[in-house]
Amino acid sequence: xxxxxxxxxxxxxxxxxxxxxxxxxxxxxxxxxxxxxxxxxxxxxxxxxxxxxxxxxxxxxxxxxxxxxxxxxxxxxxxxxxxxxxxxxxxxxxxxxxxxxxxxxxxxxxxxxxxxxxxxxxxxxxxxxxxxxxxxxxxxxxxxxxxxxxxxxxxxxxxxxxxxxxxxxxxxxxxxxxxxxxxxxxxxxxxxxxxxxxxxxxxxxxxxxxxxxxxxxxxxxxxxxxxxxxxxxxxxxxxxxxxxxxxxxxxxxxxxxxxxxxxxxxxxxxxxxxxxxxxxxxxxxxxxxxxxxxxxxxxxxxxxxxxxxxxxxxxxxxxxxxxxxxxxxxxxxxxxxxxxxxxxxxxxxxxxxxxxxxxxxxxxxxxxxxxxxxxxxxxxxxxxxxxxxxxxxxxxxxxxxxxxxxxxxxxxxxxxxxxxxxxxxxxxxxxxxxxxxxxxxxxxxxxxxxxxxxxxxxxxxxxxxxxxxxxxxxxxxxxxxxxxxxxxxxxxxxxxxxxxxxxxx
Length: 505
Hints:
Layout lengths: L1 H24 L7 H13 L2 H6 L11 H15 L6 H4 L7 H6 L2 H9 L7 H29 L7 H18 L9 H17 L12 H7 L7 E6 L5 H21 L12 E5 L4 H13 L3 H6 L4 H14 L4 E4 L6 H15 L3 E5 L13 H19 L3 E6 L20 H7 L2 E6 L1 H7 L7 H14 L2 E9 L4 E9 L4 E3 L9 E3 L1
C-alpha cells in the first residue's frame, strides 16, 4: 500500500514538474523592447535624457545587447563633450553585425524617430532597471534550485544558504547578481575623490576617524576595503581601544548628522561590533562608564554617589541613539559574520566592522589545522571589507613568546598563526603598555635604591600606551603614543607634547 501511494505521489509530482516545464518553455524573461527603443531615442534627440538616468541605469540593464552598446557609446560621447546623435554614432557601429541585422545605421535614425518625451526619460529608465532586476532575480532563483538539487553531499545546507544570500545581497546592492570589471578611469576618479576628501578635511584624513588625532595622523583614518589587525597580549587594552574607536566613529556620525553635514563627507560611521568575548551589556557598560567619567569597577559594584548616578543617567541619554550595533553571539563562524554584516549594511548602511576577537571565530568548513582555519578566516574578513567597501578591524591575540623577551614590545612574528594574518592584513597594529610590565617588576621595598628606581620608572610610564604600527600597506610604520586611563578604559590624545606620532620608513 505504501509503495502504491509512493508511486502515485511520484506520478503526480512528475506531472506537476512536466506542467511547470511546459509553462516555463513559453515564458519570456521580463523585458520591454519598446521602452528601450523609446528611451534611446530620447537620448539621441536630447542628450539631457542620458544625464537624467545614467546614475542608476547601466548598459547591462538593457535586455537587447545592441541597445546596451548604443547606450554605452552615448555616455562615452557625452563624457568627451560631444553630441551623441545618430550621425555621430553611426561610424562606431558600421561593422556591428547585430546592428546590421536590425537595419544598420537606419535603425539609429528610427530610434530617434521613436523618442519618448524628455519628461518620460526618468520613468522609462527606472522601468528598464526594474525589469533587469527581475531577470537577475529569476537567474539567482534558478541557480538556487539547481544547486539545492545537485548539491555535493559534503556541502552543508547552511553553506548553500550563505551563498544564496550573498547573491541576493549583491543584487540588492548593485542591481546585478554577477561581478564585472571596473574600468580604470572609474578607479582613477575614485582615488582622486579620496585624495580630494583628505585635502579638504580639517583632520587631513580620507577614511573613518578613530577619534585619536595621533593615530589618524599615522594611518590616515580607517579606509574602505582595508583589513586592520589590532593585536596585543592580555591586559594591554585591545578591547578598550577597539571600543573607543567604535564609539568615536559612531558619535562623529551622529554629531555630523545632527549638525546637517553632508553625510557623504562625514568621517564618522555606523558601526557593527561583533563581540565574541564580552556580552553586549558589558560592552555598553564600559562605554557608559567612560562617558560618565566613572570607574567601571565602582559602577559594577554599585558604589555610586547620587551625583555619579545622575552623571551616569545623563551619559545614557546622550549616547542611546548611537549607530552602534553589537552582536554578542558566541562561537560565530566567518560565514555568520559575513551574513550578519551584509544584513546590517543593507539595513543601517554600516561604515565600519569590528570583530573581537579573531581567534574566537571558526571557519565555515572543517580544516586540517588551525593555521588553515585562521587563513580562511582572515581571507573571509578581507573579502568582507572589499564586498561591503568598509574597513574591517579584527582583534588578535599574540603568542606567549613576547613574555620570554627582555623587550616585550610586540612584533609581527608574535602574531598567532602569523603567516596568514600578516599576509591578508593591510594594517597591523599592536597595543603595548609598559606600565603593565613595570608593575610586575616591583622590587623588595627593603632595597631602597632599587625601589626608588622602580618608583621613578613607574611614574614615567604611568598612564602611557603605545600603538605600534608594524605593517601598513599604504604608508609608513611607526609608533603612536597615547594616554590610557585604566579606571575608565579610555584612550586619549591628552598627553604631553612629545607624545605624537613618530614616523619612520
